[in-house]
Design a protein that fits this description.
This protein is of the alpha/beta class and 287 residues long. The strands form two sheets. It has a five-stranded parallel β-sheet with strand order 2-3-1-4-5, sandwiched between helices. Strands 7-8-6-9 form a four-stranded parallel β-sheet, covered by helices on one side. It has two domains: 161 residues, Rossmann fold (3-Layer(aba) Sandwich); 115 residues, no CATH class. Helix content is 39%, strand content 18%. Helix 1 packs across helix 7. It is globular, with a radius of gyration of 21 Å.
Length: 287
């Protein structure tokens, strides 16, 4: 069975991800207590279900301890299991809770050691939730939804569904430093030192996906040198990441606006590595 486990920080878009999977044909369960996961998968397998998506998060705070072991057992049993973790910057989460006027799930739960007469603030709830889910985040494919539109998140989820993995998947993502660094990066490279096409009035409205911008950067010796250095670094350390049994390696390339240099670098790196590896491209600032 193909299984997507969805977890993450409240307000980061887990419901959106679950809805996309349900629309794609997955049998979906929200807020499942982790102790029931093996029994649920056994039942669905007997019923002939081929694909399931299950949301497990801090709402089941008291039963998270055994989840990692359950995941390992399901993989050992031959199930294709992907763990997707959604997160976002604290300020983005606060804005979303303010917009929806919903309370954080942990604000209604009394956790061990908590004084019932001392309620937690929203920021404290988010910080507590991050600590509770830290172990899951470390083994998952992480998506930072801080600056994403809902349509972008839906598109990225559909992309993950269509990946047929036999080994590690390299995910190249461009971003803008002025918007903020992504939270999901395994490796991050800064290309702001390269000549900026933004200052050419003819290139300014274009992106690194357009030929005039590509030709401009190809004519810059330092751009080609940096591209070669990044490629060689990835090639050198990729076997170590594979040996670590990772499903995804997220490599983020940043420039000032996330439109020209970082996009160009991502496109060139993806073109180089897709001949031997499974590659996914994301441009965070391009809609």
């Amino acid at each position: 069975m193909r299984i997507f486990l969805i977890s993450g920080i409240s307000g980061s878009g887990k419901s959106v991800a679950l809805n996309v999977l349900e629309d794609t044909g997955f049998f979906c369960v929200d807020n499942l207590p982790p102790t029931l996961l093996p029994e649920l998968i056994s039942t669905l397998t007997q019923d002939g279900i081929q694909a399931a998506a299950i949301a497990i998060d801090a709402r089941s705070a008291n039963s998270l301890n055994g989840l990692i072991n359950s995941i390992q057992l399901l993989k050992a049993a031959g199930h294709q299991l992907d763990l997707l973790f959604l997160t976002a910057k604290t300020e983005s989460l606060i804005a979303r809770f303010s917009e929806t006027r919903r309370s954080h799930p942990l604000s209604h739960r009394l956790l061990p050691g908590q004084n019932p007469n001392d309620p937690r603030t929203l920021i404290e709830c988010i910080q507590t939730e991050r600590k509770m889910l830290n172990e899951m985040e470390e083994i998952a494919d992480v998506i930072d939804t801080s600056g994403l539109k809902t349509s972008q998140l839906r598109s990225w989820i559909r992309e993950l569904i269509n990946i047929e993995r036999s080994n590690i998947t390299i995910l190249f993502e461009s971003f803008a430093f002025k918007v903020g660094v992504p939270l999901n990066a395994d490796l991050m490279f800064d290309v702001r030192t390269l000549p900026n096409p933004h200052y050419d009035i003819n290139l300014r409205p274009l992106t690194g996906q357009d030929l005039p911008v590509q030709l401009f950067l190809q004519d810059q010796p330092e751009a080609q040198e940096m591209l070669n250095d990044i490629s060689q670094f990835i090639e050198k350390w990729l076997p170590s990441f594979k040996h670590d049994n990772r499903s995804y390696l997220t490599i983020c390339i940043g420039c000032t606006g996330g439109q020209h240099r970082s996009v160009y670098m991502v496109e060139q790196l993806a073109q180089h590595f897709k001949t031997t590896e499974q590659v996914v491209i994301r441009h965070r600032e391009l809609t």
